[in-house]
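Please supply some protein, with fold tokens.
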Amino acid sequence: MIGLIGLAVVVVFLGITLYQCVRIVPQADQWVVERLGKYHTTLNPGLNILIPFLDNIAYRMSAKDQMIEVKGIEAITKDNAMTQVNAICFIRVADPKKAAYGVDNFNTAVRNLVMTTIRNAVGGMELDETLTNRDELAARLRQSMDVQMVDWGLSLRTVDIQDITPSDSMLKSMEKQAAAVRERKATEELAAGNKNAAIMEAQGKKEAMILDAEAKQESAIREATALETLANGQFKASSKLAEALSIEGGREAMSFQLANNYIQTLSDLATSPNAKVVAMPADLAQSVGGLINAGSLMSVGSAVSK
């Protein structure tokens, strides 16, 4: 019986010793081993052999990317605007020894580093710049955090700014400012529209005045041409009349023609339905008689010449 108990104790002891001697590290893990309380080595994924009772697994590190989310970071911009920033970063353990012994708790350390770096970066930028240039702010964070995280055995994979929210009072001021900007733009657009309309109206009036002036000029030219044509016709008629009067018997022929036209005109007036009274000159008979005698003389003269 005692022998069985002793055998069982030996088996248990050997099992514990074997368990402490042989360790299998999972994929994407790294274990930090201490020997007699001092750093000894780092176990990589796979089968590893330790010295029982001397070697101890002090830290189990994950080689995967780890997400650290930091919310509600209060930061004051360069123009004294209060903001709340939410950020997220991904880190990876690059050196398990530094991550284990370089900082007490690297998750908390990274969180505090993100908060401090964001406050410093936002403090060097104005509010409009922080709201519109998140990529630039994230780049400043990466540049500032990389050096410090190397000392902790960590690798900064990426850091992003999720959102930046101004304070309530600042939001109200921004809304008023945006409303004022929209109103100003609307006023400018209305003024520009009125200006264009006035310009178009003025151009229309100008073109109408030009067309009217051109029409008047063309009408004046045509009227002058007509007057010139009439003057030329009258000049030619006067020349022919003077030529006719200058020949023998021309004056008598002209007098006879005038008398004939005068008598025809009186006849037309007398037969007109609108004519009620026809005024006759007192010396009409004498004048007509003289004209007839002139016509008779012209006829006799014509017969003698024949």
The two ends are 197 Å apart (CA to CA). Residues 294-306 have pLDDT under 50 and may be disordered. The first helix runs from residue 2 to 21.
